[in-house]
DNA sequence: CTCGATTGAGTTTTT
DNA sequence: CTCAATCGAG
């Protein structure tokens, strides 16, 4: 429709982006031939922009209609972001071009909304839905706890019970701490992970099963589960992708695939072998324009089957299967962070020679900050323990917000950190490996406050708020306990309906806590208290539950409606943003439990269904929460309120940026504790790496050039903190326990020295931050490359 | 230096 | 509850 030259001019004039100013971005958008374009893009280098501009270029320059474009990403959040950018920029470009009379008709044929921008799973689901085989119905996807429940309800339970010893022995290899699973729930989690892995890595099940009787039992569990899924037309994510691949291979999707004229894949470093096979099949079949974007240094989904090797060896692997050549472009100009920050994370990977062999070869050059040195050093706050750290951090933030500036003293050189006019807590984020506020101790039943919990209190005491809906397990939040307890009181007044589901002791404990919380609430007679209030409402439900005839009551009642009625008595659920997230998690659990339950989460009034529908609800919807199997998904919040500081895990922060980022590098590392070494300086391969190695001999296509298990475990930790350190725009602050910076006499294994990848240690146990001492005596000085406050 | 008592630790992520 | 690091006594 227009030339590439005109396109670049259009982008400059309408979107204000000068592609000639950045050679990598220009080449990324202009590249045109049959070779696959591989963009290796460092953090903050504008890869999303290039991806969208390249996609729009396919429409305007290469005359591909949006419906023939496919853009895949790794998370729903990223897909949403891409779609927004695509629509914003696309609409602007199209409306400008519409002014040109000659182009108007062609432009009017373009419907931007028809472009498919989604995760690969959701594209697979669409493809299978749009191309049902004769007599087939649309696939239903069971996610998270629902698919776990299905596994438990099909083959897992019988096979596990009959082979407990042999399976426990095998599972011990993959549990945390290398102990036998401490209950069925943990065994189920391991089995689920193995099953997913077997599918995602396209493992040869026959040879895998032959390794040992225990492995054969795992294969049996998987087979039973898959048969059940097939008979009910249910899918989990792995099975969905596998079905998609099978349909691609038997050519029953051929017409659909030939509709793909351009394929753009984001976050390729997190792709797994099954997804790779899908992509290669599409590429071979319809020979589209292909763009692959990723960063080997930011790969962090090994636990999900993501293999960075698929990215670093992409050119060879792709050529071997599809015959296509690959052209590579590196993007290392960073538009996000200050020079100080970029320098800090560059040295984070440069300082560890052991990291180099895992990177793409040849490695991309070091990231260069386009913003330059801005004068704010990296900040570090280290205190004696979590409580003091939480207090110090909260009061530092309070000062900064109240005065809009804060004085910092850098070795006698004083300078001010200023907050912009509209700066607020919403511009800050605290990243940590774990954001859990309290830990339920399964040995003594206590809830122990952790750093995030102390921090919440410290903030609240100063009138500041945080946003951390994932910080507490649903089952321990008091208003959630009230709600779930009310449900129990309404549906099971005599405590008779939980036994059949064999709850664990832990679950029983929480069920009784909930009942107690609900009883207390009823006794407080909360508003609205007219017509007998909450007490009368619950009493009515209890009568129906016990079979007392009640003509006014409908024959069946959706459990969700009962929930929405009950929350009117619980104030938190009315307007608090964290409560909205929790409520969503509860309703999601209820509706997905409906998939596995014959009652579909309806509560019946009479006959045998009166008891059974209630039992089913308690077993399938409430027990998973009591057993802590339900995850909170805060992505449903369109935006976090501006007056709250967000807490996130590093994984969740991937792809995001914030003006000020606080990274917890060890708030609770008071000593060189063996049980936390995996968080900072592993001694043993992680269990996920072990699983990879056990499966490796049974892969269809060999995967990795040999790299030792312990090195891969270190690599993951290095990448994790690389991602964390590359999030901030202007200020990066590291927080931790004082003892992390100590370096006394003695060997590194003892004397309170705490080696930590996040704090600049190399895996050979050297520490570049440690200054060699001059003169005769230790102690040795440690000079962190940051300003300690 | 050795032994036994005391103390403090004990996962995270997504489709 | 279990494991490992540290501490204090002998």
From TrEMBL:
Keywords: ATP-binding, Helicase, Hydrolase, Isomerase, Nucleotide-binding
GO molecular-function terms, A-Z: 3'-5' DNA helicase activity; ATP binding; DNA binding; hydrolase activity
Origin superkingdom: Bacteria
Pfam families reported in the protein's UniProt record: UvrD-helicase, UvrD_C
Domain UvrD-like helicase ATP-binding: 20-338
Catalysed reaction equations from the record: ATP + H2O = ADP + phosphate + H(+); Couples ATP hydrolysis with the unwinding of duplex DNA by translocating in the 3'-5' direction
UniProt-listed PROSITE patterns: UVRD_HELICASE_ATP_BIND
Residues reported in the UniProt entry to bind ATP: 41-48
Cellular component GO terms held in the UniProt record: cytosol; DNA helicase complex
SUPFAM superfamilies: P-loop containing nucleoside triphosphate hydrolases
Alphabetical GO biological process terms: recombinational repair
InterPro entries in the record: DNA_helicase_UvrD-like_C (IPR014017), DNA_helicase_UvrD/REP (IPR000212), P-loop_NTPase (IPR027417), UvrD-like_ATP-bd (IPR014016)
Main EC class the enzyme belongs to: isomerase
Coiled-coil ranges (or none): none
EC number(s) from the headed UniProt entry: 5.6.2.4
Entries under PANTHER family matching the protein: ATP-DEPENDENT DNA HELICASE SRS2 (PTHR11070:SF2), UVRD / RECB / PCRA DNA HELICASE FAMILY MEMBER (PTHR11070)
Protein name from the UniProt record: DNA 3'-5' helicase
């Amino acid at each position: 429709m227009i030339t590439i030259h005109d396109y670049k001019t259009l982008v400059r004039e309408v979107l204000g982006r000068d592609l000639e100013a950045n050679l990598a971005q220009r080449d990324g958008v202009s590249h045109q031939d049959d070779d696959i374009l591989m963009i290796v893009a460092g953090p903050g280098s504008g890869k999303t922009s290039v991806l969208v501009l390249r996609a729009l270029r396919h429409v305007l320059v290469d005359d591909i209609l949006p419906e023939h474009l496919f853009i895949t990403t790794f998370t729903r959040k990223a897909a949403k972001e891409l779609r927004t950018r695509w629509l914003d920029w696309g609409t602007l470009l199209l409306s400008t071009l519409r002014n040109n009379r000659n182009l108007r008709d062609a432009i009017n044929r373009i419907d931007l909304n028809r472009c498919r921008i989604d995760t690969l799973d959701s594209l697979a689901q669409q493809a299978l839905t749009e191309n049902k085989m004769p007599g087939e119905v649309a696939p239903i996807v069971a996610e998270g706890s629902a698919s776990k429940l299905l596994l438990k309800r099909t083959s897992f339970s019988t096979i596990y019970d009959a082979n407990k010893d042999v399976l426990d022995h095998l599972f011990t290899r993959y549990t945390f701490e290398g102990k036998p699973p401490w209950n069925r729930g943990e065994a189920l989690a391991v089995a689920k992970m193995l099953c997913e892995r077997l599918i995602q890595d396209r493992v040869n099940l026959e040879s895998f099963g032959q390794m040992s009787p225990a492995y054969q039992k795992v294969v049996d569990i998987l087979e039973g589960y898959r048969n059940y899924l097939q008979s009910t037309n249910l899918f989990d994510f792995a099975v969905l992708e596998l079905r998609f691949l099978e349909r691609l291979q038997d050519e029953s999707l051929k017409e659909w695939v030939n509709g793909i004229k351009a394929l753009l894949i984001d976050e390729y470093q997190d792709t797994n072998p099954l997804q790779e096979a899908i992509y290669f099949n599409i590429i071979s079949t319809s020979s589209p324009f292909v763009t692959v974007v990723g960063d080997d240094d930011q790969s962090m989904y090994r636990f999900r089957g993501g293999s960075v090797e698929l990215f670093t060896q992409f050119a060879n692997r792709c050529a071997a299967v599809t015959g296509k050549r690959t052209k590579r472009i590196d993007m290392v100009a960073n538009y996000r962070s200050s020079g100080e920050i970029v320098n800090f994370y560059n040295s984070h990977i440069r300082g560890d020679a052991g990291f180099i062999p895992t990177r793409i070869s040849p490695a991309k050059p070091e990231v260069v900050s386009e913003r330059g040195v801005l004068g704010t050093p990296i900040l570090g706050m280290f205190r004696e323990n979590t409580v003091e750290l939480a207090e110090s951090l909260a009061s530092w933030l309070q000062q900064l917000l109240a005065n809009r500036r804060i004085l910092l003293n850098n070795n006698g050189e004083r300078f001010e950190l200023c907050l912009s006019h509209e700066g607020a807590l919403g511009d800050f984020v605290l990243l940590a490996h774990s954001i859990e506020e309290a830990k339920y101790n399964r040995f003594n039943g206590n809830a122990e406050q952790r750093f995030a919990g102390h921090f919440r209190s410290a903030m609240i005491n100063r009138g500041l708020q945080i946003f951390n809906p994932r910080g507490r397990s649903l089952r321990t939040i008091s208003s959630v306990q009230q709600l779930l307890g009310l449900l129990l009181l309404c549906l099971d007044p005599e405590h008779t309906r939980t036994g059949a589901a064999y709850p664990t002791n832990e679950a029983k404990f929480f069920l009784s806590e909930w009942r107690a919380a609900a009883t207390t609430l009823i006794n407080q007679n909360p508003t609205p208290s007219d017509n007998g209030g909450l007490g009368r409402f619950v009493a009515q439900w209890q009568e129906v539950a016990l079979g007392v005839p009640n003509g006014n009551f409908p024959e069946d009642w959706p459990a969700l409606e009962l929930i929405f009625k009950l929350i009117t008595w619980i104030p938190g659920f009315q307007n608090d943003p964290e409560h909205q997230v929790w409520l969503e998690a509860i309703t999601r659990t209820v509706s997905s439990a409906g998939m596995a339950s014959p009652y579909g989460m309806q509560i019946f009034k009479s006959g045998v269904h009166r008891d059974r529908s209630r039992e089913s609800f308690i077993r399938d919807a409430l027990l998973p929460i009591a057993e802590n199997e339900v995850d909170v998904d805060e992505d449903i919040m369109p935006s976090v309120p501006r007056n709250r500081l967000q807490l996130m895990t590093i994984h969740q922060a991937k792809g995001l940026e914030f003006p000020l980022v606080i990274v917890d590098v060890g708030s609770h590392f008071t000593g060189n504790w063996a049980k936390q070494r995996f968080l900072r300086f592993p001694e043993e391969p992680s269990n996920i790496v072990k699983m990879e190695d056990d499966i490796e001999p049974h892969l269809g296509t060999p995967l990795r050039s040999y790299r030792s298990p312990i090195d891969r475990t270190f690599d993951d930790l290095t990448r994790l903190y690389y991602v964390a350190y590359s999030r901030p725009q202007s200020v990066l602050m590291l927080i931790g326990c004082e003892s992390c910076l100590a370096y006394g006499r003695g060997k590194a294994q003892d004397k309170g020295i705490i080696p930590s990848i996040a704090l600049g240690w190399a895996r050979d146990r050297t520490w570049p931050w440690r200054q060699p001492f001059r003169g005769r005596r230790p102690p040795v000085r440690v000079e962190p490359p940051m300003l300690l406050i």
